[in-house]
Amino acid sequence: MSLYLLCILLFCVGLYSILRKRNIIKIIIGLGIIEYAVNLFFILIGYRMHGRAPIFSGDQAVLNMVDPLPQAIVMTTIVIGLAITTLAVSLAIRIYEKYGTFDITKIRKLRG
Amino acid sequence: MSGLLNFILIPLGAAFLVALTGNRMKKAGNFIFILAAFLLCALSLYLVKSVGAQKIILFKAGGWLPPLGISMVADGLAVLVLVTVNIVSLTVAFYSLRYMQRYTDVWKFQSLFLLMLAGMNGVILSGDLFNMYVFLEVASISAYALVAFGVEPEGLEASFRYLVMGSLASIFVLLGIALLYGYCSTLNMADIALVLSSNPKGLLVGFVAVLFLAGLGLKAAIVPFHAWLPDAHSSAPSPVSAMLSGVLIKTLGIYTLARIFFNVLGVSSKTLLVLMVLGIISMAVGAIMAISQSDIKRMFAYSSISQIGYIVFALGIGTPLAIFGGLFHLFNHAMFKSLLFLNAGSIEYSTGARNLNKMGGLSRRLPVTGFTSLVGSMGISGIPPLGGFWSKLIIIIAAAQAGYIGFATIAAVVSIITLAYYLKFQSFVFFGRLNKAWDGIKEVPLSMKLPMLFLAVICVVSGILLLPCFRPLLESAGGVLVSTVQYKDAVIAAIKW
């Protein structure tokens, strides 16, 4: 249970960083944190205490195995997260070239 | 049937080939780009026929029987949205050939465009929740990049905001999928529906529904989550705005919302009420914000929010007639909103300006753009012979029949406001005295006129589309949403067969 709570805490840290920080880079880091929190949560859902790797072989009885599907899924979401982070960072570089600042409150050419 | 896989393989392969050849041989890149869009459009029209005969087509990736493998499902609803997406993307692709010439590295645009198309087709056809999420991200990430394609300060800013909001939305969806997997131990949508129908629905399912509503509602720009849309859609290059406003928000937002709520989680009267109220709010807020805009594309973007509100409202009423009207409005709105954004693109192409107050009398210089935008404006504001009138009428009648007289009145009033701001657009841009500054401008070239004329013809014809050829398609699409059990039963029957 405490693991889940810590996971939610990590989620909240990420959310705080996205909502409250003014620096674009910190917002991108917040996106990363929030994504790791969800990945961790997905892994926790498939985790069994003292479970073993889900490799099937003839001479072993199937007792307590970790669910492999969430792990496969998290691999995919990590790749997606990488794509998002790359795009966000390259946007941040271009924004810095055009506006000369990383402060989100000063980047306001659009209304509303 | 492996035909369904083509909808993802063709655009993915073409995106790769365009990226490979487009840099050196521009002609070859353009050819592959158009060929892929054309093939997809033809295949989707062909799929209408085969789904009409078989009701549901299932593809099992790698031959694994669901719920084990990844499955792709094409039923009435999927086919309707697929046809809409591919028709719009073909016209926009054709239009972009000339329009995008003023940008450098057009092949990057074409490659991203095809990736976005692959993502949308994947979202529509996926029968697996996580697979749907992956394609959602493919389409979204290409959309973020496309918004910033011009590398102007506004585009970059809009793109960054869109990216932050959009990835937050995706993360909510992923969290919802994680919780649902923990509860049902399966990711196949039909199988989840089966598990949920046999187990009591706890508090968890309600929480998951809220997560999906927040995530997908943000993608669809329903009002409390709409802040990114006017920026992103007005800063992007016009063909991109046409795709984003025309089909992307419907595929990633409305379609997924309808599929998950109606077919997987199952709807209760409470969820329907929430959808209905959100629909009414976005309808009204979008329309009121649109009146005061002086930028053409910003006005159209707010108008998109308002029209999305109509579709969500119709889904929220939940009666067969309302859902029929909502899906019809989805089709119509895709056509006329992409037409209007292409018109805005043509105006920008000829004059280089987007501000309403600086224009006037342009219809003398731009006759085709003026005429097609008149058709589009008439269609969206609901003038009788055009498609938009029938879909709005059906939605309002259905609301009144279901006993929501107040909501029906608001929908009718918003329709009048819509007419008001489209008349404003017409009178400021096309009617009246010609501004001296625009004396020397020329009409856009033929390759940009043709797509606009094509969409204008569809706008006019779709009013008569309630006739034989189109009605079964809409009805089978509506049928998927009306009965919650039908989707899972149909998929399970198709697996056994």
Structure description:
The complex is a heterodimer of chains A (112) and B (497). Helix content of chain A is 66%, strand content 0%. Chain A is an all-alpha fold and 112 residues long. Chain A starts with a helix and ends in a 13-residue tail after the last helix. Chain B has a domain at 278-466. Chain B contains 19 helices and 2 strands. Chain B has helices at residues 6-21, 26-54, 76-99, 106-125, 129-147, 153-184, 189-198, 203-220, 228-235, 238-265, 269-291, 296-317, 320-351, 367-381, 387-401, 405-429, 446-461, 471-482, 484-496; strands at 57-60, 71-74. Chain B is globular, with a radius of gyration of 21 Å. Chain A binds chain B through residues 18, 24, 27, 31, 34-35, 38, 41-42, 45, 69-70, 73, 76-77, 80, 83-84, 87-88, 91-92, 94-95, 98-99, 107-110, 112, and chain B through 130, 134, 137, 141, 144-145, 148, 151-154, 156-160, 163-164, 167-168, 171, 174-175, 178, 181-182, 187, 227, 230-231, 235.
User: Given the structure, what is the number of helices of chain A?
Assistant: 3
Number of helices of chain B: 19
Look at the helices and sheets of chain A and give the structural class. mainly alpha
| Widest beta sheet: strand line-up of chain B | 1-2
**Rg value of chain B:** 21 Å
The share of residues in extended strands of chain A comes to under 5%
Query: Shape of chain A from CA axes?
Result: elongated
Portion in helices of chain A: 55-70%
Q: How many strands appear in the DSSP assignment of chain A?
A: 0
Q: In angstroms, what separates the terminal alpha carbons of chain B? A: 12 Å
CATH architecture of chain A: Orthogonal Bundle
